[in-house]
Amino acid sequence: MKTVHYTAAGGVVIDRDRVLVLRRPSRDEVRLPKGHIETGESPRQAALREVTEESGYAALYIVADLGAQEVEFDYQDKHVVRSERYFAMRLEREGDRPPCQVEREPGEFQFIPDWLGWDEALAALTFEVEREWLRRARSGMQTGPARAPEVGS
């Protein structure tokens, strides 16, 4: 079996007591947004780009670096080794509108954005590794991270 290595970055987008998940009906999955880090991109840049592409929400900022982990799995006759880096994010918006009313572009057709409470999101996520990112974000939000710069690594 061939081994494939790649790096990815993603985000846990938080709005008060809810988090953004992506429903992927074609695979019966509920996921967090993430994707490949492109050549020349920092993990932060990739995370913001991927969350925007997949969810349609472009007005985002990073509030915390949730760390990195390596994930291994078999997929389509390949052994995949993925280095992941996730960031806690928030929506930039004015007023007190719920996220479903925040202006957004259409995201990738395969994903349907949904806002769930923390416990509901933990139960809904398909993969344990993504539930771990959610737990890290929730723990970090309880300690109240400050807004972090969006550039750099």
Notes on the protein architecture:
The chain is an alpha+beta fold. It has a single domain (2-93, 105-142), classed as Nucleoside Triphosphate Pyrophosphohydrolase (Alpha-Beta Complex), CATH 3.90.79.10. 23% of the residues lie in helices and 41% in strands. The protein contains three helices and seven strands. It has helices at residues 43-55, 118-124, 128-142, and strands at 2-15, 18-24, 29-31, 34-36, 60-75, 78-91, 112-117. Strands 1, 2, 3, 4, 5, 6 and 7 form a seven-stranded mixed beta sheet that branches. A hairpin with a 2-residue loop joins strand 5 (60-75) and strand 6. Helix 2 packs antiparallel against helix 3. It is globular and about 45 Å long.
Q: Which keywords apply here?
A:
alpha+beta; disordered C terminus; 41% strand; Nucleoside Triphosphate Pyrophosphohydrolase; 3 helices; 153 residues; 7-stranded mixed sheet
Summary of the model, kept short:
With 153 residues, the protein is an alpha+beta fold. Helices cover 23% and strands 41% of the residues.
- Helix/strand-derived category reads alpha+beta
Q: How many DSSP-defined strands?
A: 7
Please state the CA-atom Rg, rounded to the nearest Å: 15 Å
The helix content, as a percent range, equals 10-25%
| The CATH homology group name | Nucleoside Triphosphate Pyrophosphohydrolase
Main sheet record: 7 strands, mixed
| Mean pLDDT rating | 85
CATH level-1 class: Alpha Beta
- Helix count, DSSP H or I runs of 4 or more residues: 3
Strand content: 35-45%
Can you tell me the CATH topology? Nucleoside Triphosphate Pyrophosphohydrolase
